[in-house]
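step=predict obj=Arginine biosynthesis bifunctional protein ArgJ n=383
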Amino acid sequence: MSVTAPHGFTAAGGTAGLKPSGRPDLAVVHNVGPRASAAAVYTSNRFPAAPVQVSREHTADGELRAVVLNSGGANACTGEAGLSAARTMAATVAEAIGLLEQQVAVCSTGLIGVELPLELVVPGIVEVTAALHPEGGQAAAEAIMTTDTMPKQSVVGGNGWVVGGMAKGAGMLAPGLATMLVVITTDAELEPAELDSHLRAATRVTFDRADSDGCMSTNDTVIAMANGASGIRPDPQTFGDALTAVCADLARQLIADAEGASHEIAITVAGAATEDQAVAGARTIARSNLFKCAVFGGDPNWGRVLSAIGTTDIAFEPSRVDVTFNDITVCRGGGIGEDRNLVDLSGRQVELLVELNAGDARATVLTNDLTYDYVKENAEYST
């Protein structure tokens, strides 16, 4: 049930006609209450889409009652008309379910530089809000898909409370955040500042470390809403772990569904001087096309790993670097290790561990082996 797994949330998805395919393209998630705590993290792209700009305004006070999301149009780089359209979407939801416009966030995904047809969006919102239901999470998750091949949902239960989430994303995956729309809900009782702290901590080690193709979107949005319907104020560590688990699960689903990928790769750099250096090393490897090609071809080419991390300025001694593919250490001390033929890359999951010698910090970045075939076969890109 994803976003409707926690008590006090309803959702719905429907078709407004924004996609030539006629597939669902509009979703609404409603926080029925009693509380309206909210937090959000947005793209750092210097061309933020109109819905991002409006949602930033609406989440500034730490309260939300609803989120409206559309696929089939990013409403990005659309000027004042785009801002007006995003505000109209929020106002339409507000009027339909008895809220203030400022209590509604807006998310859009699709092709950049195309105005949203409000003549389709407005009646679509009215229809979708009329269908809001405690079991509408699946329909909402399906409605926000673009090039996704499947809806992405996750639920983690606590002691009498629940965290649920849904995500959209398959291409243009790169920090921060990764190309995504994410809505997370919980019936735990949290103040806005608490929720914000937990969300930023969770996204820092999950969505911010999903890096498929090095391309950052204009529309990235992660919104969390907490309504306190369970009546339980959870232990901070326990809640943080649950929220991070939902984000991590959704991030892995995003990477797994990236177009053209045949492997999901977790790159861990350990023994770095700082966490930031560990992230930098792992991200450099993740963005190496030569490394991706090697994995796609089933070749544990550790030379490409060393070549990639060797371009960084992070602290390590080259003669003390080890590289391990799926538990087989093929490189020891910057030289030949175990027989690379022992490594099995036939499965979808690949674990790469690069051990440095500069400290105790470590970090993991998720990526995949996107191939040129996807670029060749897909002329139209979207957020």
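step=describe
The chain is about 30% helix and 25% strand.
step=end
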